[in-house]
Fold:
Amino acid sequence: MGTVSNVLNRPDIVAPTTRSRVLAAISELGFVPNDAARQLRRGRGRTLGLVVLDVANPFFTDVAKGVEDTTGAAGMAVIFCNSDGDPNKESAYLDLLEEQRVQGVLITPIDDANTRLVRLRDRGVLVVLLDRRSPRPDLCSVSVNDRLGGELAMRHLIENGHRRIAFVGGPHRLEQVRDRHEGAMRALAAADLDPEVLRRFDTPGTTVAAGRDAAARILGMPRSTRATAVFCANDLLALGVLQGLTRQKVRVPDDIALVGYDDIDFAAAAAVPLSSVRQPRQRLGQTAATLLLEEANSPETHRHQQVIFEPELVVRESSQFVRSGG
Amino acid sequence: MGTVSNVLNRPDIVAPTTRSRVLAAISELGFVPNDAARQLRRGRGRTLGLVVLDVANPFFTDVAKGVEDTTGAAGMAVIFCNSDGDPNKESAYLDLLEEQRVQGVLITPIDDANTRLVRLRDRGVLVVLLDRRSPRPDLCSVSVNDRLGGELAMRHLIENGHRRIAFVGGPHRLEQVRDRHEGAMRALAAADLDPEVLRRFDTPGTTVAAGRDAAARILGMPRSTRATAVFCANDLLALGVLQGLTRQKVRVPDDIALVGYDDIDFAAAAAVPLSSVRQPRQRLGQTAATLLLEEANSPETHRHQQVIFEPELVVRESSQFVRSGG
DNA sequence: TGTAGTCGTTGAAACGGTTCATTACCGATG
DNA sequence: CATCGGTAATGAACCGTTTCAACGACTACA
Structure:
């Protein structure tokens, strides 16, 4: 039924009377077009894939919300995939998305598995990196300057007089963690301080539980050399550290100052409101989705670009300077 | 190419030599089957829809994780939809899922919009209600006994001697909120207490911000009649209340005890660990997905069922009995 | 050696849209 | 009145897979 198709897709080229007759029939029969058929003929469908590192991290759900805002307005469906930091899961999901012939994929890759992504792109699946700067100029990416974020956090702690600082984060494989650490080191260098001021506490993941463990390790150090401040690679870790410290009656910020990263809503809601490095989470998702849709709609005029947002330090109680009582 | 299809779907009926020859060709050409074509031919695809009330609520992300575990193992894709409590968005997503010819839909409906869901079911889309008991016997549902949960929380507060208690929750349209409140009332009745003991503080949503506002309202009451305990319809609200109280130097649980609902990870991680009513979040998702897959695979033998889990009170510091200092 | 039966491969139809070439119709013009 | 131009509806091919009927080769048995 060619006319029906025209009514649905190019209503202007069909006569008004016919159009209304067709529409009446559609609603009477309860006709719902089959997207698979459309997709088969057109080559690509109305869905796109979103692959994130951890659904349980509010940072990513906020990013997802941004993606959803944008795609929903464009009538697109999002296939939500959670790689969970597992390369196998990531790979399996990419296979699945390829079979689905999605328009494109928004992904925070686990490591720099560019070969896989480039292959995908070569097959006609648009790829936009999320929260990760693309090392290649031929992929769009939307990221935040993590090095700067680390620097901001560290400078803040240095300015508050801290000279023994712990960096809690991991696994090192994650570029975000590495960059934030590097930024922190840069702040040290800028202040002409010994690199030893910052002591790294690696964690197996970026979860609340990992943060609690890290707190225990920090408290295990002799009081005289113990860190007076902690900078965490993300807020989940920071919340875990906060909990671990509080349990041992170590006061934040009086005894130990604390700065997180991401500024998730729970950071402000913590009983000791958490200082954190804010990232434009929803805008990250919106921008990535917009880039993808733009490339999908006008592949010729599209220029690949690397959008980089600036992070912003939000100082709250957890790192406030407190006049020492002793 | 009938043989290729057989190699992929019923490898046993094809001769070993042919099979390996086909597989070799597949990997050489980098052939990836087109799921749209498969879906078109077969009628239904390998995707299913998940519609939740709020992506930003860790309760739902944990449920989603459970769904994903189960479907991922079955090679299914999940189209993740966030109704955000907006009936229009919910409806738009259901349209989209219908066009996608998903196998089924897992949904926490906003209100009892059963007509829409039944229509969907009649068109061959399997429907399983999530975190909501089905009033009809012809839909599967997986839920938690919210009334019991409310009762457990309330009984706990009553046993700790509280006689002026605030219930923070809303909007009332949400069945979960209504049921938890009803359960709380039941506990009052069981203890032969005046229903006035429980005072309701309605909120426009179940967010941290709404909880903060509610805390302000509670603190606005004269000290003599002010609640000594707060029961929140979910943990986001409870975290907001906790934050609001702490900011005003009201101590939890010393001055006001606090119980939340859902036992999200952040509840235990709060600086005053939150007492909460635990729900088997991941199992909720797993079970719903399993029911759906089971019905999809053997529609004849499938019996619709209403799975109801039991909630469990987890007592932490926020509602611990504290010997009053005055 | 002929025939029935088995196993495996091949070919074509079908799914439900989109797209484009073709046709039908109408009014305007020579 | 015939022709032309333009608009709108029709019909058929096509997308890539599944499914099933038809077919071919081979074995077993009489």
